[in-house]
Here is the input.
Amino acid sequence: MAMKSASATKRRSGFRQQGALLVELVLTLPILLAVVFAIVEYSVLLGALLIMNNTTSEAARQVTVFRTGFSQADYEEFARDSLDSLLPQYVGNFRENIVQSVNATPCGDSVCLRLRLVYPNYQDNPLVGNSFFIPLPANLSAESTTRVEPNNE
Here is the structure.
């Protein structure tokens, strides 16, 4: 009879172990999932920033390199076209949400063009999903400035 009692105690102990494992899983799984979702969200966000930075710098390079005899308006139009053609599709409606701007300012005896891309309201309209527990920036932006010498004739 002592044998039955020992095996029954062993069975109950096994059930307790399984119950403890289930409780631990229920307590840790939400934290683990939150960390995974945060990693995914920030990876996509940093990818979008990298794309925006590369697009503005490459567009500024294209405007500057091998372009002579353009008027200021031609340079600005070329910069807008470059931004538009270089910006790739990324995740979801990334490309449609980007706002482009090209501003010219005097820069000594020449003109500086500031090329800027902004993803407005990123906090309310993120690329991955609306994660209420992950702090997100209000806007994503990237800009590059290049110096051009327009033909004043």
User: Anything to note?
Assistant: Residues 37 and 131 are 8 Å apart (CA to CA). The radius of gyration is 28 Å.
